[in-house]
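Before going further, learn to read the protein records used in this course. The integers have meaning only within a learned vocabulary of local backbone shapes. The record below shows the convention in full.
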Amino acid sequence: MEITLEELAQLEKESYVLLDMRDEDTYRHGFIPDAVRYEAEKLQQTGLPHDKKLILYCTRGLNSVEEALALREAGYDAYSLKGGYHAWLIDSFSRRQDTAAQRCADIEKSLRKKFHKDIFSKFAKAINVYELVQPGDRIAVCISGGKDSMLMAKLFQELKRHNKFAFELIFLVMDPGYNEANRRVIEENAKLMQIPITVFESQIFDAVYEIEKSPCYLCSRMRRGYLYSKAKELGCNKIALGHHYDDVIETILMGMLYGAQVQTMMPKLHSTNFAGMELIRPMYLVREADIKHWRDYNDLRFIQCACKFTDTCTTCDPDGRTVSKRMEIKQLIETLKKTNPYVESNIFRSVENVNLNTVIAYKEDGVKHHFLEDY
């Protein structure tokens, strides 16, 4: 019923099909080589091969067991990969220890050469245009373990090598209750990429796990508060988060379509609860597609979301019923791009070209102003 990684490695590639049960967004963040997404409805229409082993995997090998059983009952030679994607990911690190130093050098070289224009230059431009880094800053570079924050850490290291003024970096990782596998993935990637992380622990996941209404929003707010607090304790005056260009335009549309408001994700903010602290977003002008290209070019694999909800395989729904609001917005933008290739830049620039003479009402410092006040 279950097959281990060792047993999988002994099989001829032509003898099996590897099926990834996770949702599309999770699959895009990283998958086992040669695996295809298991979309039950589409595969039922085209048919699954009866002459090959069907090896299914999910995040942690929970839902894949049930699905493999269902396929067996339907007459297929189906198996579940023991431990799922997490087990394969951990195993991939152990097979690369002897090449870690060279791989880190190659990763850094790729930022200086192949991705200099699309990634490093845009990173540096955001820092200059929005005045994100100043002489004497001590910045807590906050690493969640995903592709965006890990890339941001490498970019800061590269910036520090060449910058004209002095500033300090602390690579800060908060463990809000990760499982052992996710914690190890973060540590192994930091080791591979030679990022000297400082890890501290909290129990945020436990605190929000039973919350039914907006647990993700509460978790995000709590995580930011913990990061501010720890960064200030370490003598930092800024925290850096890895939000990118696509996050910005998606946030603008989400605010309009789901929040009935016009707002954007700012490149920097003063903290309202921690005096003297600032939040900066130096990846503000970097496109997500380029981040993914850098990740895949360097054969890197990161965690996507490590909360307890995904730990229980809620991202493994083969019918695609669990689609986040952000994923809906991503799909909407992709649809709009088919008829207007400039739609993304137009959304981004729209909040730079707000004409208050044509706005019914707006808020400033929490106070609402109506156009009739000056009509």
Remarks:
- Confidence is low (pLDDT under 50) at residues 308-314, 318-322.
- The CA atoms of residues 314 and 322 lie 8 Å apart.
- DSSP finds 16 helices and 13 strands in the chain.
